[in-house]
Each structure stands twice: as structure tokens, then as C-alpha cells.
Amino acid sequence: MTQTFEKYFVPEPSKYPIFGSIALLLFGSGAAMWLNGFKAGPWAFFLGIAVLVFMLFGWFGQVVHESEGGKYGRKVDRSFRWSMGWFIFSEVMFFAAFFGALFYARVLSVPWLATGDTVELLWQGFAGGWPTAGPDKPDPFTPMTAWGIPALNTLILLSSGATLTWAHHGLRHDKRSQLKLGLLVTILLGVLFLSLQIYEYRHAYAELNLRLDTGIYGSTFYLLTGFHGMHVTVGAIMLTVMLGRALAGHFTPDSHFGFEAAAWYWHFVDVVWLLLFVVVYLL
Amino acid sequence: MAAVMSDHAHGDHHGPTGLMRWITTTNHKDIGTMYLVFSFIMFLSGGVMALTIRAELFQPGLQVVQPEFFNQLTTMHGLVMVFGAIMPAFVGFANWQIPLMIGACDMAFARMNNWSFWLLPPAATLLIGSFFVPGGATAAGWTLYAPLSVQMGMGMDMAIFAIHIMGVSSIMGAINIVVTILNMRAPGMTMMKMPLFCWTWLITAYLLIAVMPVLAGAVTMVLTDRHFGTSFFSAAGGGDPVMYQHIFWFFGHPEVYIMILPAFGIISQIIPTFARKPLFGYASMVYATASIAILSFSVWAHHMFTTGMPAVGQLFFMYATMLIAVPTGVKVFNWVATMWRGSMTFETPMLFAVGFIFVFTMGGFTGLICAIAPIDIQVQDTYYVVAHFHYVLVAGSLFALFAGAYYWLPKWTGHMPDERIGKLHFWCSIVFFNITFFPMHFLGLAGMPRRIPDYALQFADFNMLASIGAFGFGLSQLIFLAAVVKCVRGGEKAAARAWEGAEGLEWTVPSPAPHHTFEEAPVVK
Q1: What DSSP state is assigned to residue B506?
Q2: Residue A267's CB: how many other CB atoms inside 10 A?
Q3: A51 by DSSP, 3-state: which?
Q4: Is the distance from CB of A8 to CB of A76 less than 8 angstroms?
Q5: Cβ proximity of B141 and B74 under 8 Å
Q6: Looking at B226, B277, B303, B425, which residue is catalytic?
Q7: b/e for B307-341, b at 16 or more Cβ within 10 A?
Q8: What is the tally of structural domains in chain B?
Q9: Which residue in B177, B508, B487 sits closest to B349, CA to CA?
Q10: B298 a catalytic residue
């Protein structure tokens, strides 16, 4: 217990959090106004996003600066590790709500709608089964198939996980060009994935008649894949920042948690996709 | 002591002053204070709503508010009290006390800590502001059940975004607390030496991280059902309104324990102090807290016995719920055993703690009654349920908050709270609390439904009694305000160890605690 005591870095007072709060107030009130037809809505909404971007740039910029300035000791590094892990867990729980909804609809509520009084009195002839747009949505649609773009996307995301790990190996063995190349390829694969997702959405809307309002199938399909796509976008932005930092000469072979956090996040997004591929597309 | 006081008066605080100090602060004590002040303001706002409800229910018939507005009031009273008053108040305690109790210099993420707090005023602005938009605030009940919540006006959207923002705040706050406890403990402060308040908050923080995102998912589905044509909660599209209830209560039941576990922690600090004995069964307290938290994930559908569920499901959720009485019983037993043959004195914190045990246990018992499916089918959505959860939330969470406030005020302000005012506050609170809520058991058993602005004549007497009690209880809280203001402005100087039997690191630093404490970690033996 007599080892030298490492002073934990406590930041100075900061102006950034209040900008974040103002941003979310503008964002939330703007969205509420927009959805209810107020002209000021979009203005407040996009202003909120702009303030949020400013805040994120400033705040993370300061964190990077402090990190490169050597202010974070081993203990702070451990704090970052714990917090990133639990943050990802909270994201898992967010997705769990939507996976839960899909499970509930497929296993419980749709079969219940096709039995008993509901089918006899309310919606005669509703057969249940999956995929379905529900008993009262007669508009026919074609469901998504797994083999095609989704399978290709699975391959792309899995490869991006591999290239990211390759980049990490480069960083750990101080092969900076391997780090940069690996990151670049990972980001490009992420962008390719997103482009294919957008193409798939357009295809679904234009040719499959599969839309957000296509009953419970459309709801779960678009919200699950949509939120996943948003997370891929965020992950790609994180990796892009890491690429920028790598180009600027940041990170050392044994201290680079910023990179690792982004990598953890990327792998998490990867795992969510695998689940999605199985339960949304394949089953 | 005098040197410490003058040192504090001149301030060892650097950086911005005035309002900017509070906006930019990264100090856990400043942030804790802001949480506590904010939650008290929200408590008074929610209280005014409650009193308007009770004024309307004073007599049968409609006299004070329109039914539509009445529904908005019951909804917003719940949302404001749960998300604005009780939860932030406990986070305020966590901010102030956890670093002091584990010997840390601050929270692990001081800047993020600031943001966790400063997200709450915007969220509250959205929530309270929704009263003033076309259609008024959401009136779907605090649980925001679909399909009602899918049909509401703009106020519902504002409530949804407010919940998103409060969720972000809660998750960041919870991660901060987890990391602080896991990583910032002083040398020698092993997990099983930690004060129980820290343990209960650690477990609460895990619950928050696990369920706040689920709530965010639920209200997001409501939002897309409202505006983007999805069919999560519409049977016509293959969805199910009951699914909303499942997702909501998967959040909602752990949420109940989020609001009571830190209360258990506070009580477990206070009882040993004033019984002048160590806490009986420390390890079993830790395990009981963890068991309650784990079980809380498998009991959610006891809120839904009347919404339709296979009998097997009802049985499972009934037994799982009753199982929670076991670890809770362990806790109550341990508190009583701590007091057994102790040298007890009854200062205000102890009065509130003992009052807590008595009244909370009654709430626990009615909870057990509600857990029994066949009985619950009778009392679902009646005033019996209202009585039950106010016994655990007001006499449980709120009384523990009062107990904790009186207990740690000397550490926060440097002055002892005025015992006469504190005792007056306690006795008024507990008497008026029971006058308000005890009759509701009878009303509920007699069949009076909740969330209804008018009622049949046979319910008149008990309702009048409850309303009188409610106004008494509401006014009693001004005594608390007086006690705190008086304590902040002056009074008997508090020693570092303000209470004779108090144990723990927080009592080794001067009172009031200097702006920065434990910059060099203490060594715990």
C-alpha cells in the first residue's frame, strides 16, 4: 500500500457540456415542432445538430489534446476501458428492445391474431405466418431475401472486422503504414456496406413495395436495420477520426485506447449485424 | 475548525465565478448540490400537480379542473416525480457522497458528470413546457401506454424527447458511478469494506445501464408509430399494444428498484450511526441488494395480470415477484437487528430512518398482496395500487432522501440542522402521509378506480380525508425547505464527525467538506 500514488486527472471547469445541453434542447424541441407542422421546427432541429457537432468537435478535441499531453495515467486509462465497455452494453440493451419486439411479434402476437375471436370476428381469413404486414394491410409486398446484398454485406462487415484487427496489429508492432492502410480499408468497407444498405432500401421501396408502414414486418425490418446503419455510420466516423489521428502521428504501441474504443465499437456493430442477418433476413 | 471555516469562506475554489461557476463546474460537490436543488424544485412542481389532483378529488363532481387536464396532471405528476425528483435526488447524493465515502478525489469523469446534470434542465423544460403547447401535456398516464400514447398531441412528442434526454443523462451518470466505484477506491478500500450506500448505488447503476436504453427503445417505437407509419403497437398491422406494456415494464420494474435501492443504502448508513453498532449482516445486505436487482428483471409482467397472459405466465410472474420479499425481508430484519440492544438516540435522520422502516414495510406488504394474481385482478387500477406505490415511493424513497439529507447536511453545510424544525418536519410528514394514503387502501378495496377526476358518492369521506392529508403533507415540505435554508445560513457548528456514532471516510474530512477532498488518497486499514 505504499506504492507511489498516481494523481487522477480531474479536468478544469468546461464550457462544452452546456453547449451539448443547448444542442439537445434545440434538437428535441425542434423535432417535436417539426413533427407537428411548426415552421420553426426544422430550423431548431438543424441548429441543434450544428451546435452538437461544434460541441463534439470541441470536447473530443480537448480530450485528444489532454491525452497527447500525457495527462492521462494508467488509472484514467482503466476508467476509459470500464466506461466504454458499459456504454456498449447500454447499446446492446437498446437493440434488445427492438429484437424483443421482433421476437414478440413473430412468436406471440401474430400467431395470436390468427387464432380465436380475433380471426373469427375481426379479421376473417387472416392466416398469420411470417412475414406479414398484419391482418388489415392488404397491400402485397415482397419480403427481403438473405442471399444477395445482405449476404454480401455480411461478408463486407466481417472482412472489415478483420482489416481493423490487422490495423491494430500494425499499431501494436509500430508498423504505422499497416495501421493507416488497415484503417482506410476498414472505413471504405464500412462506406461500401452503407451504400449497399441505401441501395437495398431504395430497391425495397421501389420494387418490393416494402416500406416503413408495411405493418409489423416493415416496422421491425426498417427500425432494426436502420438503427444498425446509424451505428455503422457513427462507427465509421469514429474510425475516420482515428485515421486522422494516426496520420497526425498520435498513438503509441502501448497507449492507444482511443483506437481500441473505436475498434470495440466497430466489433459490437459487427456482432449486431450477425444477429440481424440471422433473425431478420435468414429466419 | 475555525481555520478550516475561514479557509472555506475564502474559497479554495478556482475558475469561473457566479453563474458560470455552476454551468462549467467539474466538481462533484457542486454538481451534487445542483442535482439536489433541481430535484427539490421538481418535487415542488410535481407536488403542486398532486395537490391540484387532490383538490379536484376533495368532493365528488367536477369543480376545479377539466377531466382532460386532470389526466394531464396525473401523467405529469408521475413523470416529474419519478424522473425529475426521486431519481436526480439520489444521483445528487451519489455525487456528493460516493467520492467522499470511497476516498476518491472526484468522480471518474468530471466533465461528463457536469453534462449528466445539465441535460436535466432541458429535459424538464420540454416536459413542463408541454403543458403550454396545443393539446396540452401528454395524458396517457406516466406509463405512456399505447395506443393512448400513439393518439396524443404534440405534448406526447415533447415527453418522448424529454425521456430520451433524461435517459442519456441517466446512462452517463450511471456509467460514471460504476467506474468511480470500480476504479477510484482508496488503497485498502476493498469492495466488501465499502459503505453500503456505495454498494446499493453500484447495483442501481447497473440497473440503469441495463434498462434506460430499453425505455428509449419503447418510446422510440411510440414515436415512429405516431409519425412514421410503423405498426409496433397496432394489431391491424400485426403489432400488439400489449407488447408496449411488456417492453415498458421490462424497464419499469427495475426502475422501481432504481428508486428504492439507494434508499436502502442511505438507511443502512443511518441506522448503525444512531444505534452506535455496526450494521448487522453487512455481507447479507450486499447479497440481498444484488438478488433484488437480478430478480427485478424477471417480474415485470406482474404489472399486467389483467391485460391478458397465459396462466403459466401469471403463475411464473406471481411466484417470481413474491420471491423478492425474501431479500427485502433480509434487509428489514438486518436493520431491526442492528437496532437491537443498540444505544439508540432519535435525532431527525434516525426518526426518518425508523419511520422509513415502519411505513416502507407496510408498502412492501401491500406489494406482496398485489403480487398475488387473483387479488391483483380485483385491485388492478384501483386506489389500492395508488396507496401501495405511494407507500414505497413516498414513505420509502422520499423519507430515505429526507433522512439522508438531515444526516449529511452537517457535512455539506458545516452546520447541524435544527433538531426542533427537523422533528416537526418528520412528525408532520409521517402523520399527514398516513392520513393521505392509508384511506386509499379502503377506497381501492371498495373499487374506486385511479386516474378518474370524479367518483361515486360512497367514496366521498375517505377522499376528503385523503385530500386534507395531502395538503398537510404538501405544506409540511415547506418545513423541510426552512430547515435546509436555516442550516445553510447558520446554526451550531458541525464537527468533522458530526454524529457521535458515525463511521466512514466522509466523517474524516472537515465539515463543511472542502471544495477538494482526498486529492491524496487515504489509506483504509
Answers
A1: G
A2: 17
A3: helix
A4: yes
A5: yes
A6: B303
A7: eebeeeebebbbebbebbeebbebbbebbebbbee
A8: 1
A9: B487
A10: no
Which chain B residues are within 8 Å of A13, Cβ to Cβ? 15-16, 20-21, 24-26
DSSP-derived letter for residue A135 is T
Tell me what pLDDT residue B13 has.
60
- Across chain B, which has 525 residues, the per-10-residue mean pLDDT values are 39 73 94 97 97 96 94 96 96 96 94 96 96 94 94 95 97 97 94 96 97 97 96 93 96 95 97 96 96 95 91 94 95 96 95 96 94 94 96 95 97 96 97 97 95 94 96 96 95 93 93 91 86
**Is residue B357 within 8 Å of residue B267, measured between CB atoms?**
yes
A149 vs B396: CA distance, rounded Å: 55
Provide the pLDDT for residue A7: 81
Chain B partners within 8 Å of A217 (Cβ)? 238
What angle, 0 to 180 degrees and rounded to 10, lies between the N-to-C axes of helices B28-56 and B87-102? 150
Contact A198, A159 (CB under 8 A): no
Contact B266, B403 (CB under 8 A): yes
Instruction: Specify if B223 maps to a domain.
Output: yes
B77 is catalytic: yes
ipTM here: 0.95
B307 belongs to the catalytic site = no
The parent domain of residue B47 ranges over 2-11+28-232+239-507
Task: Kindly determine whether residue B231 and residue A137, on different chains, have CB atoms separated by under 8 Å.
Answer: yes
- CATH classification of the domain holding B45: 1.20.210.10
Contact across the interface for B217 and A31, Cβ inside 8 Å: no
| Within a domain: B422 | yes
- Pick from A79, A96, A104: which is nearest to B214 by CB? A96
| DSSP 8-state code for residue A5 | P
What cell was used for B143?
406509463
Are B229 and A75 an interchain contact pair (Cβ–Cβ within 8 Å)?
Answer: no
Interface test with B, best of A24, A81, A112, A130 (most B CBs within 10 A): A24
pLDDT at B1: 34
Which residue, B315, B326, B439, is CA-closest to B387?
B439
Residues of A numbered 210-239 whose beta carbons fall under 8 angstroms of chain B's beta carbons: which are they? Answer: 211-213, 215-220, 222-223
Q: Is residue B22 domain-resident?
A: no
For chain A, the first-to-last Cα distance in angstroms comes to 56
- B 202-241 residues inside an 8 A Cβ radius of A: 209-214, 216-218, 220-221, 224-232, 234-240
Determine whether B65 is exposed, middle or buried from the number of CB atoms within 10 Å of its CB (0-12, 13-18, 19+). Answer: middle
The answer as to whether B16 is a domain residue is no
pTM of the model: 0.94
- B2 vs A: CB within 8 A: no
Interface of B with A in 67-106 (CB under 8 A): 104-106
Statement: residue A1 has pLDDT above 60: no
Nearest to B238 among A1, A22, A105 (CB): A105
Least CB-CB distance to A97: which of B158, B188, B217? Answer: B217
- Residues 6 or more apart whose CB falls under 8 angstroms from that of B1 comprise B493, B495, B510
Indicate yes or no: CB of B178 within 8 angstroms of CB of A86: yes
Alpha helices in B57-153 (DSSP H): 67-79, 87-102, 110-118, 120-129, 148-151
CA distances from B153 to B21, B130, B150, B158, B205 (A): 39, 10, 9, 9, 33
CB B181 within 8 A of CB A83: no
> Which pLDDT score is estimated for B7?
40
Relative orientation angle of helices A215-247 and A176-203, to the nearest 10 degrees = 160
Asked if B493 and B477 count as a contact pair (C-beta separation under 8 A), the reply is: no
